[in-house]
Amino acid sequence: MRALTDASLIDAMRAGVPEAWAEFDARFRPLLERYATRVGIPRWEWSVCITEVLDDEALRLVERAEQLPQYPTAYLVRAVRSRFLELKRASLRRDRRYAQAAASDTKLLMSEHARRSSDPPRIAEERAEDRTPATHFARTLSAHLSTEEQQMLAWVAEGVPQRMIAEWLGISREAAKKRIARLCRRLRAAAPDVAALLPSADRREIDRLLRRASAPMTSHSGASDDG
Amino acid sequence: MDERDDATDAELGVAEALGRALLSDLAHPAWEDPRFLDWLAADAREDARRGWRLSRAQLRAHGESMMARAHARRLRVTQGGDAPLVKDDGRGGTSRRVVPVVELGIAAGVGRELWDEPADAWVEVPNDAPAGDYVALRVVGDSMAPLMHTGDTVLVRRGADVRRDTVIVARHPDDGYVCKRVSRVRRESIELASLAPGRPPIVIPRDARLVVGTVMLVWCSHRQ
Questions:
Q1: Mutation target among A188, A221, A224 for the B interface, most CBs of B within 10 A
Q2: pLDDT tens digit string along A187-204?
Q3: How many CB atoms lie within 10 A of CB B156?
Q4: Is A25 in contact with B66 (CB distance < 8 Å)?
Q5: Which among A16, A55, A157 has CB closest to B66?
Q6: ipTM above 0.85, yes or no
Q7: Residues B166, B76: contact at Cβ < 8 Å?
Q8: Which residues on neighbouring strands pair with residue B169, listed in sequence order?
Q9: In the 8-state DSSP scheme, what is residue B141?
Q10: Best B2, B4, B6, B11 residue to mutate vs chain A (most A CBs within 10 Å)
Q11: pTM
Q12: How far apart are CA A14 and CA A62, in angstroms?
């Protein structure tokens, strides 16, 4: 079973061979789990999410009469991503609905969970973090970078290992390591200057973002750990 | 600027945080690249298989449960373990909803109604099932193979509305009662398909009197 190509594996699944289904699971689940970990999907969400996606997509691939996707791995990764985004959007919608209900007179009818999760200031804080100020900040900062550096930054954020980045750029591992370090240092140095240009409300957000990334930036004392 | 050739964790952290902020939810260029995925997949598989020690029978069972789960999700059927059989028919004034279990094979083709048969077993309807008129049936035959087997009990919600990609119990003009997947609904006929491969679909006229109801739940005793 392990030696089969993806296409013939799916043919075997179409014939209803249970071992082929087990092999499909074994073949793609580890990859999807790594994807979920690296992209930062919370652990309590990904196991259900991945099982559902594998089940659904297995069935869809089996029933699809026309050609298979060219890269089944990429196809499944995309499926996991969209499923996860769906879940996220649903939870946002739910929060919004709770918040609306909390604002209206129906508050008395709500469950304890709903009331707690509709606490307005907390929602505002949590949601704002990865939204506009941070994105705006990152855009301003990355305007100073070259296209290649921007791409490298994206790879680093996606958790692509450095040896893979090196292979992509066609340089040695040492060189890639050096380039990434230089990029990181430049960003770190430029961050306070760019942050100073933002309005003060946004700066607090950015401050929190950077502190969470373990880089205190209210003073420049953080630079002392270079020594 | 010193030329150390590796970034500190703090510096990498900043880069990662910024990169994440920069990436919109929909753009993950690295994860679109098949070369990267192949490389990562091989790596992850080796890792996972080191811990995989399944016998052939376990492998088979794993595959079968995956097939059943996939079909159940798509056909909107809930899966249960052992059927919650009860001895009495619940007329004792309890608040539980109890329905009789009828053998699907018995009434075949005799022209009698399914629920005219005397019942010798009852099952309890789960609390979270929506309100409605239920009947439980014991499956005969393996045509719905990964999802239902001979001897499984299914909970059927009675009603004549038929939707595509659900499992219904219907009366076939010649063959008695069948439990099949609805593969197509036409204006004047309904096409029913089996899940097991190699069985031709059957077509019955679209008639409310022929449809018993929609399968909501499968109790499959030899699983889980």
A1: A188
A2: 777 777 777 777 777 777
A3: 25
A4: yes
A5: A55
A6: no
A7: yes
A8: B179, B213
A9: S
A10: B11
A11: 0.68
A12: 5
